[in-house]
Structures are given as C-alpha cells and as structure tokens.
Amino acid sequence: MSKKKIVARLSPIHGNGVFADEAILKGDRIVRYKGKVRTHDEVDEAYGDIDENGHTFLFTLNDDYVIDANVDGNIARWINHSCAPNCEAVLEENSKGKGHKDKVFIEAIRDIEPGEELTYNYGIVLDEPHTAKMKKVWGCKCGAKKCTGTMLQPKR
Predict the structure, then answer these.
(1) Which of 108, 117, 85 is nearest to 20 (CA)?
(2) Could you tell me the end-to-end alpha-carbon distance of the chain, in angstroms, rounded to an integer?
(3) CA–CA distance, 53 with 44 (Å, rounded to integer)
(4) Which helix (H) or strand (E) holds 67?
(5) Which pLDDT tens digit goes with each residue over 114-145?
C-alpha cells in the first residue's frame, strides 16, 4: 500500500476531519483504520453506560470484533461521514478465518483533489428502532445535496 499524504485538521462537517494533501486517484487505498481490537462484549462493558451522542470511534469488523479507535487509533478515526462520500471502508478478511485479524482500509471511490476532505458513509444500523430522536442523535451535517439528515442507514 503506497502511503498517501493526508492531514487532520478542523472540518466544516464536524470536529476534526481528514484532508488530502495531494491528489488521490479512484481506487487508491489511502489508510488503514487502526485501534484496539475488542469483542462486542468488551465494547459494551466499556461504553454501554454512556449515552449515545452521535460520535463514535468504534468500527464493527464482524460479528465478534470491533476496532476501538479510542485506544491506539490513528488518523483514520477523524474521517467524517457523508451521504455523498468520496471514499469507502473496505473490509479485508483474514485468510485463515481469524476474525480478530480482519482489517479495514479506507479507499477512494473517485478522484480526490488536494485540500478535499475525505469522507465515507458510516453505514450505521442500530438494533433498536430508528426513532426521530435517534436519527437526530446520529444527525448528519455533511451538507450533500441529497443528505438524508442522519448517519443511520435503513435496516436490512
């Protein structure tokens, strides 16, 4: 994976964001999403009592594991959600079926200009009902023409 120069700074979307410091081409693998790999039970124990606030550094790897970028996270944790993203999260499953060794990479789905903010669709689906209150908690501020107003995705 060739390293693309990206930088974190304040974002007009939300808090910190990640921006291209050089041109990135469609299909380029930009950065790996890193953090401590934990079980869902460990994450529930660590964060279960905290009220949802629409801000997370947790990335679900599979049915057993989550990447917790609150611990040992890298710049990828600052990439914001968008309803019209220029990147996508790509899961690379471990060839030996070891779920704790699965990896997530952020890849460009179109050419990205220097200075442009990197975004991907978080694809958040909650177990509980997607009420108006929860849609507001997980509100989207991406500013896309067809913004849905929420980071929550329709249940499958």
Answers:
(1) 117
(2) 33
(3) 15
(4) strand 65-68
(5) 999 999 999 888 888 888 888 888 899 999 99
